[in-house]
Each structure stands twice: as C-alpha cells, then as structure tokens.
C-alpha cells in the first residue's frame, strides 16, 4: 500500500530480484534460442528492470530505467508506459538490441518472482518508522503513511545501514581487523565501517584468512560504489548487491560480522527478517514491530537540506489529541485565554483574520482568529456560527482545524495557524525561485486527502479554490474557509441552494450553476480548477472571462488549456475533474488514488534529478 506495485509483477517471464548469473542459468535451461528473453528487477535503481536475452548463444543484459515522468526506457531507446509495453515493442523492432524479442523465457512452474531487497519489508518498515518516530496511531498514522511514504522511504533508505548488524560505525581499520579475526574466519565474512577522516565508508572482508579493505566512494550525486564498481543509491543496496556478486571484490559478501554494540533486539540471527535474498526469505510481519529502536525525527536529507515533514509540525494532530487538553474542549473559549495580535493575516467581507495565541492547559498555541466586523448583524453572526459548527466536526491533518469560537468584543472564530498563507499567493510570489512540479503534486495530493475525508464525512465544501488552500510550510497544505460549506443529510447526495448567492462561478460545476446542486462531485470540479491554479503558479483561471462567459465556454465543451510545464498526467486528471455530467465524474476517493500514484512515481525519482531538485531558497519564513 505504501509502496508502488511492481509494474511487472503479472508477467510470466518476470523473475523479480535475481542476479545476472541466475538469469543466465534460466536462459540456458530454456534452450538458448535467438531472442529468448526474461525480465528481472534492477538491483541498482529503485523501480528499474533488466532485460536479459540470448542472441547467437550469447547473453545480453539491458538496463531498463524508470524515467522521471514514470515511463520506462532502455538507454538510448524509446520510452514506454510500462515494462510490458516495452517488451512488446522490442518484439516487433530490435531498435538497437542484439535482435528482436522472440520467445519469453517463462518462470518454471512453482517459481515465483523473487522479492526485492526493499519490496518485502518496505510497507511495514515505513509504518513502524512513522509510528515510532512521531508516536502516531490510528487515522493520524494512516494519513501520515499515505502522504509521506516516499519521503519516509527515502529517510529509511539513506539511514537504514545504521541499523544493520554489519554496520560497525566509526571504528579504526585495526579494530575492524580485530573484530573480523575473532572467532571463525570464513571467506566472505564482512563488515562496513565509517572512516573517521571524511565521513566516507569502507568495507572490510575476509578471504583466505586475510582481511581486505575496500574504500567506498561517493560520487557527486551521492551514489555509493567500491572503486570501479556499480553505483547505488544507498549503502544498504550496495551491500545486498555485493552479496550476490563480487563486482570487483576478491570474494562476494557472505557472512555478517555482527556489531557487538548494536542494541540487544537487533542481535537475533537475522535482525530484519525478509531483508536480503536468503533462501528462507521470511517477510517482516507486523507482529514484530520492535525491529526499529526509537529514533529522533531525522530532518537532514542526503542532500544536506533540512525539510520538515507535516508530522514534525505542531498542527499535524489536533491540540485536543492530548487527553489532558481534551478535558477542556468546549465550543466557546474563554476570552482571557486568548491573546490577540494586532497583526492582520488576511481580510474578507466578514472582517479580518488576526494572529494570536491561545493558552491551553499544558501549552500555548499559535492561532488565526477570524474577527467579525463590529457592526454585528444577526445574519452575519449566524453565518459565522454555521461555519464554526461545520469546522467543529472536522479533524484531519489536511484541513484547518477550529479551536473554538469566542464571543467578546465581537464574535471570533479561533483556528489553528497556517502561517504560509494562501497557495495561489505563495506560488505567484515564488515564481522566480521556482517551486518544483513534484512539490505542487505533493501539495495537491494533500488537498485531495483532505477532500476525500470531507467526502467520507458527507460534507460539501463549495468554495474549494487555491485561495482557500493555506500552507503551513512549503510541503504542507490545509484546506480552509468553510464559510459556504454544508453538511449533507444522511440520505442526501447533494445540497440544493434555494437562491444563488455571491458564488465563485469559475470554480463551479455546471450542475451548481444550472440547478444549484452541490455535492462532493461538484467539489471535484473545483478541485480541478484548483489544480489548474496551482500548476499555473497562482494565475487566475479563465483569464479575463466573466462568470457568464465561462458558463458558455464550458457548455461548448471547451476547457482550460494545460498550464505550461504541467505534467500530462496532471492535466489528464484536471480534465477528468471537469467531466460535464456529475454522475460520470470521479469522486475524491479515485482522485486521491490517481494523484497518489503519480506522486509516488515521481517522488522516488525526482529529489536528485536534474531541474527538479528542491530549491532551498524557496522556503517559507
Ligand atoms: P473568506 O471567507 O473571506 O474568504 P478566509 O477564511 O478564506 O475568509 O480567510 C481570509 C484570509 O485570512 C485567508 O486568505 C488567509 O490569508 C487568512 N487566514 C484565514 N485562516 C487562516 C489560518 N488558519 N491561518 C493563517 N491565515 C489564515
Ligand atoms: Mg477565502
């Protein structure tokens, strides 16, 4: 669930994570005919494959890389949407390969694709890491996993070696030899250590009762390799690979020399079941959650940038998630617990939004306070109370929470603070420093999660727009402004407005305008417009058109163009959101799924990719 499904899992000629030599064995067994081929997982790069084939009794191995946009290609070849399509293409046209693919070398019966180093355990590892690092349970845990799986996977991947029994930390070369020579000295006994001088690493390996030391180099992009060897994203993958193949070492890695200083629970014979390609190959079960010892939230990235995950902020969970604080939870707050700053965060028809601090039992929290204009009319007051009643029922990391209301010098709605301000303004102001496409996908995925929650709770927002998506920071968005929102009755699928009000027509689906019918499906239409705004870096939708012009534009079957540099997949999703008939429009549960898949597919690749790196200048104050 947290990780991506293997795009080749269903292919009968896919062997999963096997070594080159094994692939050659299978091809030999199947007869070595010209064009005989199989597919296996690439051990070096996450998400890549290798095409192994035969021509003129020789073996050929072609790496298939997953590209930034989620397509697959052999270096120098055409891109294809999946490994299956790629194989189909090369069965018709050799296009540079030794020959065309003619006969799939299917797995013998009883042979299943070999799980990869990461596959087996990734989901459980992510879950345990999130649970233990941020102390989350229940929905908060699930939401964190769904929204942050790629980031957490990367964190784990870059630090996982520290939890491996073969990792001995910062010990000297002499100490490494002492440890390797103590006890039995089988060929392939090894350990990995950090080298004091420069934070680099070394591999120490026994062969013929002698210890050999290899330097581990790190290239400019951060990839690890032994000199002249294959490059890997992580040390963990490097070690797993060298267990299969010496790759220039005098012998392959075989026996772990366990670090005597590892915490007790890690000292079981196989500290992380399912890791590696041992024949036993057990998988990590959720009944064994203690495999990770508690860790500090690790904010430093491989690239040296620091980045706050939503779970690191104070607004990920409700301030009332603490049972102590929950005791005091009431709709109406005491005025003397509220300090109001003069600083204005924003303004609207109702009045203005001010910064403030709210004193709770154990802590003080930053809040945003929507203050009603002093000429308190009853209807305006009622409206704000309605907004408060709606927000009171919502609790999700991707929705601005209400702390309560306060009736004093005027009626005030007290909310958690999203200091980054509205998404459209943020993106427009950061045009020159360039916020990456994957950053926008990440934020829009969070919005879809918040909207999916609303849909499940049977609420319609009715004012979803980039101006009402507020940022906590550059990587954390929350939906706000429930001024027009409605709770649907248990049996209703839509809300019928009696009269048209001051409506944001450019964000409204046809059925809203024509029949005053509002549902989660009409929120999906608005979500599409919000996506368009985000990928246009905060531009106004439908240029200079007036509301009524937009309506006839839509009626003619026209839709806004794809924003510059917006990925085709994301524009395709916008177009789905703009399906004319609401019955045929996807709901938020599918929208969230679609954007999640796309987000995962780019998030595992992009962070170090050219032109896509996060721009460290583009951070919020
Ligand atoms: P309106 O109904 O007038 O659109 P909003 O609820 O959208 O009112 O708030 C208006 C502005 O106030 C927002 O655009 C934003 O700048 C600021 N604001 C509102 N809520 C918050 C919040 N929770 N944290 C920070 N700023 C906020
Ligand atoms: Mg607003």
UniProtKB/TrEMBL annotation:
Its main location: membrane. It catalyses: L-tyrosyl-[protein] + ATP = O-phospho-L-tyrosyl-[protein] + ADP + H(+). One of its GO terms (cellular component) is cytoplasm. ATP binds at residues 345-353, 370. It is an enzyme of class 2 (transferase). The active site is at 463 (proton acceptor). It is found in: Cell membrane; Cytoplasm. Its EC number is 2.7.10.2. Residues 339-599 form the Protein kinase domain. Gene3D superfamilies: Phosphorylase Kinase, domain 1 (3.30.200.20), SH2 domain (3.30.505.10), Syk Kinase, Chain A, domain 2 (1.10.930.10), Transferase(Phosphotransferase) domain 1 (1.10.510.10). It holds the Pfam family PK_Tyr_Ser-Thr. The keyword Acetylation does not apply. Keywords: ATP-binding, Cell membrane, Cytoplasm, Immunity, Kinase, Membrane, Nucleotide-binding, Repeat, SH2 domain, Transferase, Tyrosine-protein kinase. GO terms for biological process: immune system process; intracellular signal transduction. Belongs to the protein kinase superfamily. Tyr protein kinase family. SYK/ZAP-70 subfamily. This is Tyrosine-protein kinase. It comes from Calidris pygmaea (Spoon-billed sandpiper).
């Amino acid at each position: 669930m947290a990780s991506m499904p293997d795009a080749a899992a269903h292919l009968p000629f896919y062997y999963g994570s096997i070594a080159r030599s094994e692939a050659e064995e299978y091809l030999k067994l199947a007869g070595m005919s010209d064009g005989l081929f199989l597919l296996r997982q690439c051990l070096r790069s996450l998400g890549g494959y290798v095409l192994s084939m035969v021509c003129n009794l020789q073996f050929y191995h072609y790496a298939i890389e997953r590209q930034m946009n989620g397509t697959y290609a052999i270096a120098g070849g055409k891109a294809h949407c999946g490994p299956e399509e790629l194989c189909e293409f090369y069965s018709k046209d050799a296009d540079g390969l030794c020959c065309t693919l003619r006969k799939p070398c299917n797995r013998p019966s009883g042979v299943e694709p070999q799980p990869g180093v990461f596959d087996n355990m990734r989901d459980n590892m992510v879950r345990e890491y999130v649970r233990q690092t941020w102390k989350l349970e229940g929905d908060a845990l699930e939401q964190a996993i769904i929204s942050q799986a790629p980031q957490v996977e990367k964190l784990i991947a870059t630090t996982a070696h520290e939890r491996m029994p073969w990792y001995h930390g910062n010990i000297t070369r002499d100490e490494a030899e002492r440890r390797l020579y103590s006890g039995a000295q089988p060929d392939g006994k090894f350990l990995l250590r950090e080298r004091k001088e420069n934070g680099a690493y070394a591999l120490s390996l026994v062969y013929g009762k002698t210890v050999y030391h290899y330097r581990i180099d790190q290239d400019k992009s951060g990839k690890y390799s032994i000199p002249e060897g294959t490059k890997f994203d992580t040390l963990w993958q490097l070690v797993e690979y060298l267990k299969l193949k010496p790759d220039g070492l005098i012998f392959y890695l075989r026996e772990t020399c366990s670090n005597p200083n590892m915490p007790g629970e890690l000292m079981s014979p196989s500290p992380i079941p399912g890791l590696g390609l041992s024949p036993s190959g057990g998988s990590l079960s959720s009944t064994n959650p203690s495999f990770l010892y508690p860790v500090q939230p690790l904010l430093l990235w491989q690239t040296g940038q620091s980045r706050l995950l939503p779970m690191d902020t104070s607004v990920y969970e409700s301030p009332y998630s603490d049972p102590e604080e929950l005791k005091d939870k009431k709709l109406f707050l005491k005025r003397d617990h509220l300090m109001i700053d003069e600083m204005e965060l924003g303004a609207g028809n109702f009045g203005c939004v001010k910064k403030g601090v709210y004193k709770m039992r154990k802590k003080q929290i930053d809040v945003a306070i929507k203050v009603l204009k002093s000429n308190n009319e009853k209807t305006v007051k009622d409206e704000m109370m309605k907004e408060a009643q709606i927000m009171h029922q919502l609790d999700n990391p991707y929705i601005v929470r209400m702390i309560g209301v306060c009736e004093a010098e005027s009626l005030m709605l007290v909310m958690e603070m999203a200091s980054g301000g509205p998404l459209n303004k943020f993106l427009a102001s950061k045009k020159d420093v360039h916020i990456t496409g994957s950053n926008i996908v990440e934020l829009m995925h969070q919005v879809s999660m918040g909207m999916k929650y609303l849909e499940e709770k049977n609420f319609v927002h009715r004012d979803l727009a980039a101006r009402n998506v507020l940022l906590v920071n550059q990587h954390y968005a929350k939906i706000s402004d429930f001024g027009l929102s409605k709770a649907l009755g248990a049996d209703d699928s839509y809300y019928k407005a009696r009269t048209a009000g001051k409506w944001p027509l450019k964000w409204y689906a046809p059925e809203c305008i024509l029949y005053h019918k509002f549902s989660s499906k009409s929120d999906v239409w608005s979500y599409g417009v919000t996506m368009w705004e985000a990928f246009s870096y905060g531009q106004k939708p439908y240029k200079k058109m007036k509301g009524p012009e937009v309506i006839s534009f839509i009626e003619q079957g026209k839709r806004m163009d794809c924003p510059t540099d917006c990925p085709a997949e994301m524009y395709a999703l916008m177009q789905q959101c703009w399906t004319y008939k609401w019955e045929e429009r996807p709901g938020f549960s599918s929208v969230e799924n679609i954007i999640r898949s796309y987000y995962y597919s780019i998030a595992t690749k992009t962070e170090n990719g050219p032109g896509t790196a996060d721009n460290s200048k583009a951070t919020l104050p």
